Amino acid sequence: MPTTYRTSDTVDFIVVGSGSAGGIMARELAQAGHSVVVMEQGPRLDAHEFEHDELKYRQLSGITNNPATSPQTFRRNENEVAVQRASNSLTYARVVGGSSTHFNANFWRLHEIDFHERSVWGAIEGADLVDWPITYAELEPYYCKVEWEVGVSGLAGASPFASFHSRPYPMPHLPIKSSGVLLEKGARALGLHPFPSPMAINSTVYRGRPACVQCGLCGGFACEVKAKNSSVWTVIPEAEATGNCEVRSESYVFRIGVNDAGRATGVHYFDKDRVEHFQNARAVVVCANGSETPRLLLNSATPAHPDGLANSSGAVGRYLMFNKGGGAAARFEHPLNEYKGANVTMMLHDWYNADPARGFYGGGGFTARSGGPLTWGQSVPEGTPTWGQGFKEYLESYTYWMNLAGHGTSLARETNRIDLDPELKDAWGIPAMRVTYTDHPDDLKHAQFMIDRAVEIMDAAGAVQIDPGHVDLATGGVHLLGTCRMGDDPTRSVIDKYHRTHDVRNLFLCDGSSLPTSTRGQPTHTIEALAFRAAHHINEFAARNEI
């Protein structure tokens, strides 16, 4: 029988969120002997209950935050009135496994430069670039732990720009698909250095789960064969196997309880019938993602914490970052059949580092990838008819196209933030999320730089038609970063380098909100490494009675 706890039981830890960080946190705490309740707002689905239905999952919020029940508002700056859009600005999954269920599973490590760019670049006008309070060397063992205990396929050492790996990947890289071959062709012709993409997808049978069957439905979908290494298939079952962990699905945490001594006492939540409960705990770890974590802290305001819990710095919800990118679509003479296989198999990092000679801050990488038929049909090249014979001819050419996607930096700005909308509420009566965001000018310049490089590579690969991307102001994203940044200075950050909040001794945060900088396009591997590292230190604190 699965482990269950009563709400009146005082468990050792509540983990809010079951995604990439929450699943790891639950496993590590439970394996150390602690009693753990994982709170997940979404349902628990088995592999056969996920559907390869592009309309349902990519267009109609099958497992993501639905604007009908969880609305958001958006504005460019604080002088504008925030408005509700047809689709939510910030997208993430609400299901056991969180966004690790529907991500592409593209798994980069950061490079050493990511951790100390402020020291290299200095101040950037209109931004708040900071160094991390940890180094690549401190995180490197935990990158290895992710790769071997969660499962990553790849080829260590294939990129001449990568920082050191103390261990190889446990699985060989996935087979290179047509788009990867063409990226390699174009890149080599220009003297660049493409390499097989590391992916959190099994290329062989690994830890009891099968290899990828090349169905092509990765991004936006859960893996029906469990080859994609989502927490629901990997660390969560291992947490439950200890007998110390309960995963409480369809449980919406909306407030953290705090006593007069300033300690977290548990969480208030709604069950699937929207009945309110309170679960007692000795400590709380919030891993709800870079948007829901600050929202929860802000909604946990009390007379003693009028600006929100753990917010004496005023940084909760601020410094929101996405990953600004730019690229190009390209059509080739022969069919590529990009709908088959993992979405990404080849990439390059030649422009990973920022370079002052470009005249702006920004760096990142490129991946060769594809979109599904419905997504493709909604993204026609400029000048293509959107009705009639011309549109039909374009749709028939679908298998001849590929994308070269650039993934880059977003600069942290204090004015880019998440807070509570003063008027709009969600279906449970909780204040909705309000998003305020304007791209830094350097982010826009870097996006155009990536578009130009993508066009050059696709031209060198022999494309017969190229559709360059456009530089647009961001209206949202799926990589939700920086809103509870880590740092040594309690006046400018929310958590310390061990993920403990500066203000509340027994409250910890670990997810995309923790990142002081945006990374360069694929943050999940780093989020999982941070979760392993944070859990290690939390277990040490608990052993010394320091929580």
From TrEMBL:
Keywords: FAD, Flavoprotein, Oxidoreductase. Residues 12-314 form the Glucose-methanol-choline oxidoreductase N-terminal domain. One of its GO terms (molecular function) is flavin adenine dinucleotide binding. It comes from the Bacteria. Residues 413-531 form the Glucose-methanol-choline oxidoreductase C-terminal domain. It holds the Pfam family GMC_oxred_N. InterPro entries: FAD/NAD-bd_sf, GMC_OxRdtase_N, GMC_OxRtase_C. Belongs to the GMC oxidoreductase family. PANTHER family: LONG-CHAIN-ALCOHOL OXIDASE. This is FAD-binding protein. The lineage of its organism: Bacteria, Pseudomonadati, Pseudomonadota, Alphaproteobacteria, Sphingomonadales.
